[in-house]
Amino acid sequence: MQPATEQPYLYIFAKGEMADRTRLFAWEDTPVGPISSWPPSLLITVNQILDSSFPMFIWWGDDFIQFYNDAYLEILGDDNDSKHPKALGQKGEECWQEIWGLIYPLLGQVLITAQPLYLEDQLIPIYRKGILDQVYWTFSYNIIRNNSGEAGGILVICSETTKKMVFQQEIVNQLTDSNLRFESLINEATVGKEEEQRKNDFINMVSHELKTPITSLSAYLQLLEIKAKKKDDTFISIAVEKAIIQVKKMTALINGFLNISRLESGKIQIDREKFDMAVLLQEIEDEFTATISSHIIKVTTPCENMVYADREKISQVINNFITNAIKYSPAGTAVEVSCVMVDDMFQVSVKDEGTGISDNEKDKVFERFYRAATAVSGLVSGFGIGLYLCAEIIQRHQGQIWVENNLPGKGSVFYFRLPAYT
Ligand code: ADP
To answer: Under a CB-based contact definition with an 8 Å cutoff, are residues 56 and 71 in contact?
Structure first.
């Protein structure tokens, strides 16, 4: 005969705090009865949970008397305010008052149907650490059969998923947050559009107002030029000539702004006609060589010349390319304009030997008001609207526009392609 204290070792073999407590517990004072009277299924399951490192729990009998393992201790809360060790041998309803209403029907369902239950990430708040803690669980309930093969109790295998759920919630919050921020940006942008419209109206109005005095200023200057030439006054002639050049620049700028506001209010129309590209390029070359002496302008034209497009606007695009080539390259260098057929498309290119455009600005220069760093630092005047207008015109012709970079300091080549309608 073994001493009474050693007897439970015949039944409970596991090691650890809960194994010790289970061995020493006065089970005879509970409806489960002394360990020696337990049905083998309960004994085996209790031994198994006490050996396991995964949180496990048992409710046994009509009163749902409780057993649990060491891994379950953390779930029960810290030392000060823990349900442990009171929970061992306690009735389920007493231990889990705060959630009994929630779990009792689940237990009942498992006991009656003998079907296991598995639930993921369920919010089941429990009292621990002195508060009703919002705890998420993934758990399974399985019946443990008694000697007569009926459901005698329930084995609970569970893990707390609160951390994962809090993390997920944070991500959802962040997404919601960024969504809200995105929406508010869109709202701002929508309001900003309204502002854009007002700005366009303003630019349009100012440009129109400026156009009238500039037109008469230009007319007076031309009269003065004629008179100065008649009087053979060289100083006045040269001064007036310079004033005329400046007025032309101003007119071009104002026209640029007017074009933008026309474009953005949808007032720019593409009026197609059949014309000879070689003739247009010849005209443009003549115009530039007559007025520009700082650069060498060379034009190469194709043999197949007829194109169906808006002649005036295409002329504007080529003019803009050449004006830029002159603006952004040193005096004395060449500007090569050429036109070739590529895959049934007319391809016009303007090549210069100027500053070039950095790779990351190659697309941006076609945006409205965008000016590349080299232009700004080189103190070349401009508003960044010319290429934007060019891009709009070419796109409205179902064409393509782009710039290719030569090596830094070797200049750039601006291209556009137009479908050749024959
Ligand atoms: P603007 O010349 O009035 O600034 P554009 O829309 O014609 O406006 O050109 C936009 C920008 O593209 C210019 O500010 C300049 O930085 C760059 N750019 C255009 N053409 C050239 C070129 N041939 N070489 C270098 N940079 C150019």
So the answer is: yes
Q: What are phi and psi of 353, to 5 degrees?
A: -115, 40
Confidence at residue 306, expressed as pLDDT on a 0 to 100 scale: 84
Tell me the pLDDT tens digit for each residue of 213-253: 787 788 888 888 888 888 887 888 888 888 888 888 888 87
Distance 323 CA to ligand 1 centre (A): 9
Residue nearest to atom 12 of ligand 1 (CA): 365
The residues spanned by each domain of the chain are 4-124+137-159, 163-265, 273-419
The string of pLDDT tens digits covering residues 51-87 is: 999 999 999 999 999 999 999 998 887 667 788 999 9
Burial label for 331, CB within 10 Å (0-12, 13-18, 19+), is exposed
Which residues pair with residue 156 across a beta bridge?
A: 57, 141
Which CATH number does 273-419 carry?
3.30.565.10
Q: In what order do the strands lie in the sheet with 65-68?
A: 65-68, 56-60, 151-160, 136-145, 117-123
CA 383–ligand 1 middle distance (angstroms): 9
Q: What is the pLDDT of residues 102-150, one digit of tens each?
A: 788 889 888 988 989 898 888 888 877 777 778 888 999 999 999 899 9
Atom of ligand 1 nearest to the CA of 354: 24
Residue 2: the pLDDT is 43
Q: Which atom of ligand 1 is nearest to the CA of 373?
A: 16
Domains 4-124+137-159 and 273-419 belong to one CATH topology: no
- Pocket, ligand 1, Cβ cutoff 6 A: 320, 324-325, 328, 352, 354-355, 357, 365, 370-372, 374-375, 382-388, 412
Query: What fold characterizes domain 4-124+137-159?
Result: Beta-Lactamase (3.30.450)
Ligand 1 atom index nearest CA of 375? 16
* Per-residue confidence band for 3, with pLDDT thresholds at 50, 70 and 90: very low
Question: Global pTM?
Answer: 0.52
- Mutate-to-test residue for ligand 1 from 365, 367, 370, highest number of ligand atoms within 8 A of CB: 365
Q: What's the CA-to-centroid distance between 30 and ligand 1, angstroms?
A: 91
Tokens representing 31?
A: 């409806």
- Do 300 and 339 form a contact (C-beta atoms < 8 A)? yes
Q: How remote is the CA of residue 419 from the centroid of ligand 1, in Å?
A: 25
